[in-house]
Amino acid sequence: MSVPAVTVVLPCYNAAGHLGKTLDSVLAQDHPEVRLIAVDDGSTDATVAVLREYEARCAGRLTWQSGPNQGANHARNAGLALAETPYVAFLDADDAYEGPLLRCAIETAETEGADLVFSTMEIRYPDGSAKQRGPYGPPDYDNRRLVREWLSGLQLNPSATLWRTAFVRQIGGWDEAIRLNQDGEIVLRALMRGARVGANRHGRGIYRLGVPGSLSGAQRQPRKLAALLDTMDSLRAEAEATGFGDAVEGIDFVVYRIARWSFEAGEIALGRAALSRLKKGAYRRHHGSRWHRLGAALLGLERKVRLSRYFARG
């Protein structure tokens, strides 16, 4: 079977310490038609030097460009605009591929007519432990179940995701206004817009947590909570526009957690803003331990959290 070519787009920002391992993992793929487009997003370390070194070494397989810092989604869209292959993958500069992931994911897409293929993701933690997640796809997971699972936290990051290039362009690429959960937003938008999904069980995408300079980080910081709330607003509008109104309950669950985390961090205005996003009466459906649910039902979420913080200090 002749396997169509694929472009791997790597957004890079101050990634010199781990970029070489990521590039090596792509170049080690057994698919002979893998092309690399790296987009440096205004790095201030030696990222560009690493890209120059690999460009000289890779005999035309790697192209790259550099510009001012405009965010990871801008870098991904810049790479997508340059891709000339039927398939495209987006790999963060601190992640990696292992095994025949790209070739087998493309074979799955070709066989099943899929726009979006999920592979196995292995999460590697700073203490050396690891766990695997996925892949997800038919017949066990239709798009509605995938949306519910994604909103409940069972996400796969870009290292375990392959796209049909024409489809990702059709849905508008990466939303550059989204600042947090960027990969979750584009996958959910794709699922709501009818992406045909396939599951590949060969190879695995490596998602490294705790890498210095990584795009991931503590999501309970106030600025990240505010960004995540914006993402949920965007997804709510998408769900209502595409007939996925049943996804709003899952979105409300995330917004409730944002409100709770905000109150716990003392970010009262942000917590209130999150509660105001919930559909009428939804905040009464409290989530958490039995005692939290009881206290929040009696006092309201804000007062319950503030009292808990007061007694914890005392």
Largest sheet: 9 strands, mixed
Q: Pairing-aware structural class of the strands and helices?
A: alpha/beta
Q: Which word captures the global form? A: globular
**Rg calculated over all Cα atoms:** 21 Å
| Unreliably modeled segments | 213-218
Count of beta strands: 9
**Mean pLDDT rating:** 89
Terminal Cα span: 68 Å
- Share of residues in strands: 15-25%
What is the N-to-C succession of helices and strands?
A: EHEHEHEEHEEHEHHEHHHHH
Number of helices: 12
As a percent range, the share of helical residues equals 40-55%
In short:
Helices cover 45% and strands 18% of the residues.
Describe the structure.
The chain is an alpha/beta fold and 314 residues long. It has twelve helices and nine strands. Strands 1, 2, 3, 4, 5, 6, 7, 8 and 9 form a nine-stranded mixed sheet that branches. Strand 2, helix 2 and strand 3 (62-67) form a beta-alpha-beta unit. It is globular.
